[in-house]
């Protein structure tokens, strides 16, 4: 019989599991934030180009990341069932699929210029973004492998090491950026290309660290022994879960990528302000994402133990924690917008007043979508833990592509609201996703575990 946990115990367990994951996501976010701040100091054009390039890169990266995220609930469920063979098999095939995906995607990163031009971007900004992607794109290989191995470790509740590896990577990224972007410590001044090289170096350092840990601390899983041998049954199991997760991620990230493209149509200053506001909103989203990962792991454990009461109470607890974070973020964005945006722009930059004016309005809109953005990612985490991905994928596509993107265009350009209108479309897309996904979990998916534990 499964022991019934109190809500206090659930809050404590989620915090113990989730806080290192939140810290890891914040450290990962700090890598991109460092790029944004340093490139903002280097020049508005450089910041605009990397904002565009990063949006393009993450569309491709996050789709491939579906295989890594699929490993998390599969390993969590197998661990609850004490099935170490399935832990090894699912992780290994997640690595296979990530390597295959990266190989297929590299050409899209290498020849990105015509694709960016096709979205009606400024030719100079598109050229700089393309040059950045030709170098930074090679980091896709280590980045996807690291994502699989971090999911594997997190599902085994080894979240502390995930945090410290990511913190170390953030430090490496900051130091390398400082040297290569500005030409410090005797290094050549490389600007945008320096940021690209720093990205690849950072991902490689992360890869080396996480492989060393997995091999030395968890030798019983033999992840890399006879790595070349195929396991077709498990490979297709990871595909069946990973592809819908990847498409769900693609649907969401493409919503934000399209918002960057639309901001680029308005001009480079609005695009730079968009990049700053999006970075600030993303920082708070990392907290929700860490809680979502914890929800995935604990839902996967509940599925392995067939413990519905644990699942339901845990879901209520993690949703409540996300709600508290959202309220605090709304207060922060509405009261401290200008000081936050000022971090990213040099005091003597002639375009600073425009960036502050545009960015303040965008942060007000970011405050609006905190509640719905947190709710939708928590719902996704719970659904992934139950390995329910196909219908949520369709719900995400409807919300982000059929509602979010058209609404952004309509309010931004047809109604003439510019950046504010584009971000209003983001709010509507995320709100639709939150309602549909939460309804899916509570009205259907939770019943996968047929009988509540006594």
From TrEMBL:
Q: Which GO terms describe its molecular function?
A: antiporter activity; xenobiotic transmembrane transporter activity
Does Ion transport count among this protein's keywords? yes
Gene Ontology biological process: monoatomic ion transport
GO cellular component terms listed in the entry, alphabetical order:
plasma membrane
Annotated signal sequence is none
Q: What is its main location?
A: membrane
Against InterPro entries, the record matches this protein to:
MATE_fam, MATE_MdtK, MdtK-like
According to Swiss-Prot or TrEMBL, what is its membrane topology? Multi-pass membrane protein
Transmembrane stretches, start-end: 56-81, 93-112, 132-149, 161-181, 193-218, 238-266, 272-294, 315-335, 395-414, 420-443
For whether the record's keyword set contains Zinc, the answer is no
Cellular compartment(s): Cell inner membrane
Query: Which Pfam families does the record cross-reference, listed alphabetically?
Result: MatE
- What are the UniProt keywords, alphabetically? Antiport, Cell membrane, Ion transport, Membrane, Transmembrane, Transmembrane helix, Transport
**Per its UniProt record, what PANTHER family does this chain match?**
FMN_FAD EXPORTER YEEO-RELATED, MULTIDRUG RESISTANCE PROTEIN NORM-RELATED
Spell out the protein name for this chain: Multidrug-efflux transporter
Species lineage: Bacteria, Pseudomonadati, Pseudomonadota, Alphaproteobacteria, Rhodobacterales
Gene encoding it? mdtK
